[in-house]
């Protein structure tokens, strides 16, 4: 059943009024979009922070993860897969499954220099190159 048929008993209904209502509705939607563009996105989007497990990430953090049951899993790959990364960003962090250690790129994207991040020894972690007694 068309809108005109539904309102055929209404003497005030004409196809022109129906068209005017659709145009007015479209203008209303366009106005809402324009207002959203002027005022910007909600505050949570505008400040550049992302929170997983939280609705209020710390303002000094780009990404905040909160959980009491799970952790952050860094990408795991072999040395060959690591070396196949095209232009790895400086400070890119991976877990090398060949050497069984975390590594980061201390070089440039064009000339990467993969450095072990931490080495494990016994029940504690130490920075690479700093002897522990």
Describe what this molecule looks like in 3D:
This protein has 133 residues and is α/β, with parallel strands linked by helices. Helices cover 29% and strands 21% of the residues. The protein contains 4 helices and 8 strands. The strands form 3 sheets. A 4-stranded mixed beta sheet has the order 3-4-5-6. Strands 1-2 form a two-stranded parallel ribbon. A hairpin with an 8-residue loop joins β5 and β6.
Order of helices and strands: HHHEEEHEEEEE
**Percent strand:** 15-25%
Through-space gap between termini: 87 Å
Coarse morphology: elongated
State the total count of DSSP E strands: 8
- Helix count equals 4
Helicity, in percent?
A: 25-40%
Radius of gyration (Å): 29 Å
Mean pLDDT: 76
Structural class: alpha/beta
**Low-confidence segments, ≥5 residues, pLDDT <50?**
none
Arrangement of strands in the largest sheet:
3-4-5-6
- Largest β-sheet summary: 4 strands, mixed
Domain count, please report it.
3
């Amino acid at each position: 059943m068309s809108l005109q048929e539904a309102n055929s008993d209404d003497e005030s209904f004409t196809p022109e009024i129906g068209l005017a209502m659709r145009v007015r509705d479209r203008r209303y939607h366009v106005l809402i979009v324009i207002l959203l563009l002027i005022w910007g996105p909600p505050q949570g989007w505008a400040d550049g922070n992302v929170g997983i497990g939280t609705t209020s990430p710390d303002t000094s953090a780009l990404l905040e993860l909160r959980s009491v049951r799970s952790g952050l899993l860094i990408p795991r790959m072999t040395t060959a897969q690591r070396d196949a990364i095209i232009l790895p960003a400086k400070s890119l962090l991976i877990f090398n499954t060949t050497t069984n250690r975390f590594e980061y790129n201390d070089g440039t994207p064009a000339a990467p220099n993969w450095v072990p991040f931490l080495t494990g020894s016994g029940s504690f972690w130490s920075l690479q190159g700093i002897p522990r007694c």
